[in-house]
Specification:
mainly alpha; rod-shaped
Length: 122
C-alpha cells in the first residue's frame, strides 16, 4: 500500500507541469548557481563589486519573483530562487552603499582635520 502511494506521488511529480521533464523544473534548479555565486561574493572586497551587475540581478530577481506567481503553470520554485537572487544582489548593493557612506564620512573628517590644522598654524 505504501509503495503505491509513493509511486503515485513520484508519478505526480514526474508528470507535473513543473516536473523534471520540463524546463520549468531545470531552469530554477540551475539558477541556484547565481545565488551560490552571490553568497560567495560576500567575501569579496566592496570595491570589486559591480554595481551594474548587482542592480540587474536585483531587478530581475524582483521582477521574475512576481512573474513566476502569475504565469501558468505557477512556478513556486522559480519564484523562490528569484527571490533569493534579488536578496543577495540587494545585500551586495547595501554593502556598496554603506561603504560609500563610510568613505564620505572619513573624507569629511579628514578635510575638517586639515582645516582645523591650518587654522591653528595661523
Amino acid at each position: 500500500m505504501a509503495s503505491a502511494a509513493g509511486a503515485s506521488a513520484f508519478g505526480k511529480l514526474w508528470n507535473s507541469p513543473v516536473g523534471p521533464k520540463t524546463i520549468h523544473f531545470w531552469a530554477p534548479a540551475m539558477k541556484w548557481g547565481l545565488v551560490i555565486a552571490g553568497l560567495g561574493d560576500l567575501a569579496r572586497p566592496v570595491d570589486q563589486i559591480s554595481v551594474r551587475q548587482q542592480l540587474s540581478l536585483a531587478a530581475t530577481g524582483i521582477i521574475w519573483t512576481r512573474w513566476s506567481t502569475i504565469i501558468t503553470p505557477k512556478n513556486y520554485s522559480l519564484a523562490t530562487v528569484n527571490f533569493f537572487v534579488g536578496c543577495t544582489a540587494a545585500y551586495q548593493l547595501a554593502r556598496v552603499a554603506l561603504e560609500g557612506d563610510k568613505n564620505k564620512e572619513e573624507t569629511r573628517a579628514g578635510v575638517t582635520h586639515k582645516v582645523e590644522s591650518a587654522k591653528s598654524e595661523e
